[in-house]
Amino acid sequence: MSVSEFTQADYAVIGRDYADLKEAARKRCANQAELDVVQKAFDFANEAHKGVRRRSGEPYILHPIAVAKIVVSNIGLGYKSIAAALLHDVVEDTDYTVDDIRNLFGEKIASLVDGLTKIKTVLDNEDKAKQKSIQAENFKRILLTLNDDVRVVLIKLADRLHNCRTIEFMPEYKRDKILSETMFIFIPLAHRLGLYEVKSEMEDIWLRYKEPEVFNDITAKINRNINDKEKEIDEFILPISNALKTAGFNFEIKKRVKTPYSIWHKMVTKNITFDQIYDLYAVRIIFTPDESATESERDQCYHVFSIITGIYRYKSDRIRDWVKHPKNNGYEALHCTVMSHSGIWIEVQIRTKRMNDIAEKGIAAHWAYKKDGFVGENDSEMDKWISKVKEILVDPDVNALELLDIIHNDLTASEIFVFTPKGDQKSIQKGATALDFAYSIHTEIGNRAIAAKVNMKLVPLSYELRTGDQVEIITAENEKPKREWLKFLQTRKARGIVLDYFKGERQESIRVGKKMVEEQLNAIGRKPDEATISAMLDGYEIFERSADELYFRVGLGLLKLNNLDEIVKTGDVRTGKPRPWNFGWFKGKDKEKKDSYVIGDVNDTKHKYVIANCCNPIPGDSVVGFLASDGTITVHKKTCSVANSIAAKHGDRIVVPEWEGAVPDSSFLVRLSLKGFDRLGIINEISRYISLVMSVNIRRFYLGTEEGVFEGYIDLYVHDKDDLEKLIKKLNKIEGIQSVVRSDL
């Protein structure tokens, strides 16, 4: 930020943007008195930020105005939230205090501003060890507002969205921190709170800066497809529209195309190409239920479904009934994928007006409908999740960094539905075991469990549950928890109960663990001195800075001392055994940081780098680096989930390496996944082309064939990304090959 006199042009832009906000606020405010509060907040913030500019050079006040616009237009919050959004940076960036806000605007607006200020403090300073206990309490305190005043978190999401929109003006190292935080914390949070528009925009911005070439390529393909298919989509909609009119429905139909991020994510997770995404287009039908009809709101959705499937053939395995079983963020809709008469698959989403409001504005609309007296079977799903988060937050043993991991895992965990012996439906985390289910029912049932019956068949407690399973827990009066349970329990609640049970034996576990650590350190010629233990605490991500905690986890069997030699050497290697390289392919650039890096420079004896095994970047990939205290830089692809997790929690370690170009004598291992039609000699043709024509070394080659179709992968060594892309292009031209895509090893 900088300070300078505003020009007439600046004041004109401020006036224009505020006029837009005021118009949006006027529609949301109940009366003139509420609108007056918004005006007062703008006047105060405008004066407080007078003369201050953002990195982009624009007046700073434009940021709070933009955040307030998102708050009212995208999320649908009222005047207090609009005022808090306008004021949200005043306490952080000026001499005014929360008490000043309280005196001028009252307790509620002041508490919202206070909460927003503390969230920013936590995110900006979470890496400073001396502040950890304060951060933990602040972060818990803020997220606890999910339970009694979710508006703090909703306004913070609006703030983060606008920061993402203007992220181009940030230096690259800070951009990577913000984007990683956004993917690790804010995107899952927006999803859980039902803010799909906010979530989708954040995802697209993340992809645009993490993989710009991929983003631009997918966007161009989407635009070409829209131009080609526009007429076909309109022809698809026409008979549906006519049929719904004939049936007497009051409705509107909207056209939608998958977002670049959702397409990219599907391509990566399913190892497919753009052309293999068959549900690229979606049609959304939003209708107002007939309150005088004998059919319920849900039944009227099914009625619309029957009309559509009477016109078009539908794909039975692509029906998603979130009307009967809403998502845990409150989302309700009926989705089906049907074949148009012109031969393209189109997803149809069926929603009532109420369902659409909740889908677009999330929890704010959900609670608004509850206050209006609308009661549905699943109204409490979102409230249950918020209560579950509160249980985590009030745990006195959880510190700030652990809290981020727990909240993130809880936000991203998928759920499955299982049944009790009496037929009652229960939701539980995907991947949960029969023992997790036992603990979800009652602590004593879990503690005394000896086995389970799933679908009437006897299974061990470690059995992984699947949607639709009927589960009965078998208990014994004298049974008690066992240490080995910790090896397969998946849910935080169950693991916490078992760990608490063994806390009485903590000192014995510490003694055993200390002996094990000393023996393994001795085997690699190390001593358990302060520096070594500190490196182990960092490397194994034990954020409670205590040697006893390390020994306790080892003694209890929770922590295996994998990669011990690497960890005590680098202090920052997170996963696998990274490969050390010493070439000048990277060059760290950071105009705002004092240090610069020319990694591999013969004159630079301070730094070396390792390529992370979790994502295996190659020259040409967009990459991010993490600088350890000993000068080691671990290099990840920017889209790597491990890198996003580290960057979200350790933003001060980010460096921005840059590929200097391929090195002829070096090669990198990558995997290509292939699909196609089998024919005589195709394997020989593929391998001959790779080895002889491209002179590429094959490490592993696996293809499986079934009923004339083959699928498999090739692990091979390439010099750089250009090399790889040429190879993919050439392989795609071989007769019978349908797709060749790079995938994870």
What is the mean pLDDT?
A: 81
What composes the largest sheet?
Answer: 6 strands, mixed
Could you say which structural class the secondary elements and strand pairing correspond to? alpha+beta
Q: In terms of per-residue confidence, which ranges show pLDDT below 50 for 5 or more consecutive residues?
A: 126-136, 373-379, 571-594
Helix run count: 29
Classify the helix fraction into a percent range: 40-55%
Strands, count: 24
Distance separating the two termini = 43 Å
Strand content: 15-25%
Determine Rg (CA atoms, Å).
28 Å
The coarse silhouette is globular
Organism: Candidatus Cryptobacteroides merdavium
Protein name: Bifunctional (P)ppGpp synthetase/guanosine-3',5'-bis(Diphosphate) 3'-pyrophosphohydrolase
Function: In eubacteria ppGpp (guanosine 3'-diphosphate 5'-diphosphate) is a mediator of the stringent response that coordinates a variety of cellular activities in response to changes in nutritional abundance.
Domain TGS: 414-475
